[in-house]
Design goal:
Number of helices: 10
Largest sheet: 7 strands, mixed
Structural class: alpha+beta
Distance between the termini: 79 Å
Number of strands: 14
Radius of gyration: 30 Å
Order of helices and strands: HHEEEEEHHHHHHEEEEEEHEEEH
Shape: rod-shaped
Helix content: 25-40%
Strand content: 15-25%
């Protein structure tokens, strides 16, 4: 075979991934790899990324990069170019194992907010979420105790407090607040966070943006029995709310009865 033709065969027929998998103890990090960027590791801090469908590579810890020829020279600096070609001949047509490894990966799936909520316990005095709300957000402990009794707040991770949105008694959305994070669990849909009792004596509904705002206002007003404090978590999901006699009327009446 002509020399140039052999070089083209080696360059196009040998995958950098196959070379790494067969030489010098490199292993695929399937968790951090994609089909476009395969991450291989060897020893502490040694990383090589294979790209361009196996035809290219680069070292994220330095400036080295190139094709399959430069990869072999990178792994074995003492080899001559002829020895590099000799090494590569045995890899022509060798299929790397990474396709099977990547197929075994399963996409991460998140449970519904209601399921994740059910696995968390209610806040109580002394836990991290209670301390965050009581000290840093200045929510009185009497308010927190009442919110806990209504199952409105539960403990999350990293000192976070979880606030439930409910409709017809079902948790539909969970807002998350901590000293360093503000967000919500994925997969839900906003209804309303509620604090208070929507009973026969209800004459007033206070609509606020955040659950912590609702708890703070309830603390300032000393939680009158005829008031219900709700939070939208941002955009309002109902058209209007009005008080008529002792009934809260909305575009979705069930939202206050959940």
């Amino acid at each position: 075979m002509p020399y140039d033709a052999e070089l083209d065969l080696l360059r196009g027929g040998v995958s950098c991934a196959a070379v790494l998998e067969q030489l010098a103890g490199w292993r695929l990090d399937a968790r951090e790899s994609t089909r476009r960027a395969l991450k291989y590791r060897r020893g502490k801090g040694e990383i090589i990324i294979v790209n361009h469908d196996g035809r290219g590579w680069w070292d994220p810890t330095g400036a080295a990069k190139g094709d399959v020829f430069t990869l072999v020279r990178h792994l074995e600096p003492a080899l001559t170019f002829g020895q590099v070609c000799q090494t590569l001949r045995r890899f022509v047509g060798v299929v790397p194992t990474f396709p099977a490894a990547l197929r075994e990966r399963r996409p991460k799936t998140r449970s519904a907010p209601a399921e994740r909520w059910a696995r968390r316990r209610s806040i109580q005095r002394g836990d991290a979420a209670w301390s965050y709300l009581a000290t840093e957000r200045a929510i009185p402990e009497t308010i927190l105790a009442r919110a806990a009794s209504q199952d409105a707040i539960r403990c999350g991770s990293h000192r976070s407090a979880w606030f439930a949105h409910r409709c017809d008694g079902v948790v539909t959305h969970v807002e998350v607040r901590s000293p360093t994070y503000k967000g919500s669990l994925s997969g839900g849909h906003k209804t309303l966070f509620r604090f208070g009792v929507a009973g026969p004596a209800l004459r007033r509904v206070a609509v606020l943006e955040a659950p912590i705002d609702a708890l703070s206002l309830a603390a300032l007003e000393r939680i009158p029995d005829e008031a219900l404090y709700v939070a939208t978590g941002g955009g309002l999901t109902l058209t209007h709310a009005r008080i008529k006699g002792n009934h809260a009327s909305t575009s979705n009446d069930n939202i206050f009865n959940g």
